[in-house]
Amino acid sequence: PETTVGLLETNRLPPETVCHELASLTGLPTHAITLLVAATKSPAGMVQVIARSLETALHQLHERGFDLERIVRGTGTAPLPPEIQGSLGAIGCANDAILYGSVVRLDVVGDDDSLEAIGPHAVSSYSNLHGESFSDLFKQANQDFYALDPGLFAPAILELRNLDSGRHHQFGFISPEIVEKSFLATG
């Protein structure tokens, strides 16, 4: 490509060294790189975080050895939180929207047995941390994402539609009470 655009989830512009590192990685001059910056609490930041619901499902499936080449197409939806004042509240709401309110639908091919085996492990309810607001969990982990169970970062519901067999498999569940409490606490 002659140019590239990147979106950074932050509340400040990156240092010039980041631009030079991206230029080195992409093989493009710095003037051909456009970086957009959006704080999590901003509408643009919140939308780009919520849009990760599909990504969380793909990541969970990949981590569990699922052949992602079997996926033909997918969609993900999650509720969009209200305007949030603080960054930590925004992080909590955005994650609660995915963990407790998102639905990911994947059209796949292949056998049904492997879908039945992997599906229950690729939703947030599989994690032993499921059921608490993300804000509370994040505080308990001293605001360290990596201290949390990686299995938590998954959609609330995963639907796998097998295009070969015509069977539909659904795993997980929505927790509207957690989403509502999260949104009302910070909105």
Concise synopsis of the structure shown:
The protein has 187 residues and is α/β, with parallel strands linked by helices. The protein is built from seven helices and six strands. It has a four-stranded mixed sheet.
Task: Assign the CATH topology of the largest domain.
Answer: Methenyltetrahydromethanopterin Cyclohydrolase, Chain A, domain 2
Neighbour order of strands in the largest sheet: 3-4-5-6
Uncertain spans, ≥5 residues at pLDDT below 50?
Answer: none
C-alpha Rg (nearest Å): 18 Å
Number of helical regions = 7
Number of domains: 2
- Distance from first to last alpha carbon: 41 Å
What does it look like?
With 187 residues, this protein is an alpha/beta fold. The chain folds into 2 domains: 1-38, no CATH class; 40-186, Methenyltetrahydromethanopterin Cyclohydrolase, Chain A, domain 2, CATH 3.30.1030. The chain is built from 7 helices and 6 strands; from the N terminus they run βαβααβαβααββα. The chain has helices at residues 16-26, 43-50, 53-63, 87-101, 113-118, 134-140, 176-186; strands at 4-9, 33-38, 71-77, 103-108, 157-162, 168-172. The strands form 2 sheets. It has a 4-stranded mixed beta sheet with strand order 3-4-5-6. A two-stranded parallel sheet has the order 1-2. A hairpin with a 5-residue loop joins strand 5 and strand 6. Helix 4 (87-101) packs across helix 6.
